Amino acid sequence: MGNARVVTRILLLVCVAMLAACSKAPPQALGTLEYDRISLPAPAAERVVAVSVREGEQVVAGQSLLKLDPTHTQAELATALAQAQQQQASLLELRVGPRQEDIAKARADLAAAQAQARDARAYYERLLPLSKDNYVAAADLDRARAAAGNADGQVGAARAALDALLHGTRPEQIAQGEAALASAQAQAEAQKVLLGKLDVVAPRAGRVDSIPYKLGDQAPVGAPLAVLLAGDAPYARIYVQEPMRAHVHVGDTLRVHVNGRDKTYAGKIRLIRSEPEFTPYYALIGEDAARLSYVAELTLGPEAADLPVGLPVRVDYPGAGQ
């Protein structure tokens, strides 16, 4: 009897072991902890004249991170403001129209041209009868005729100049002046904005991940001056294998295991990419190595705020494959 009981227990243990071996483990997705990275590019190629924070320091929104040399931009701003002021004065001159003194001068020029024309015409008319009896050379008569015609032309030009002043500024000229003023003012505003950007501030709360350029360096335009890790807690970026994709939805809450931590964190899926992406080597599990993967992101609660970025994570999704 004793031997029979021992054999029975052994058979039961073997059956349990076989059932455990045959049971399918819940699917998993692998990934890493990440933060939203904010890169602050250099707005101008200027020297770094002040660095107010250190790498790893926690900052709040609006806090000054570093400053660039404003000397050149201030000079550009002064030039733009002077040009805008000049264009504004020119536009005012166009709107006011010609001065009365200019009109009076134009009237005087017309009167003088008319007097010269009358004199030239009278001289020509005196010579004309004399030419019939050959008392005047033909060349002299031609010169008198040309002088009279030239004087008449001067009268026409003077009269046109006076009419232009009397009619005032054309609407097209005022429109051009307004456009030139708007362009100059826009240039000045652009320089003001650029001057403000030379004081690099944190756009949102986060932690300083890196400051590539140090005091005295001159970064090219567009180069990252500072990189922030934004957010109160990291999020898990995982690679969902193709067989699991149909079971994973935005808003689902999954169990997140962080490498080196015994605690399990609750993560809520905030997005899933619609297009499959390259699967990193650490997410290739068995047969899944030949299948597509979709990037998904899970938000974690405040209890994960102390977790460092880059840690490997494993996400369980028990509902898939059932």
Automatic annotation (TrEMBL):
Signal sequence, start to end: 1-20
Protein's organism: Dyella koreensis
* Cross-referenced PANTHER family: EFFLUX SYSTEM COMPONENT YKNX-RELATED (PTHR32347), UPF0194 MEMBRANE PROTEIN YBHG (PTHR32347:SF29)
Stored Pfam families: HH_YBHG (PF25881)
Q: Please give the name of this protein.
A: HlyD family efflux transporter periplasmic adaptor subunit
Alphabetic keyword roster: Coiled coil, Signal
Give the highest taxon in the source lineage.
Bacteria
Q: Where in the cell is it found?
A: Cell envelope
InterPro entries tied to this protein: HH_YbhG-like, UPF0194_transport
Residues forming the YbhG-like alpha-helical hairpin domain are: 69-188
Q: What is the lineage of its organism?
A: Bacteria, Pseudomonadati, Pseudomonadota, Gammaproteobacteria, Lysobacterales
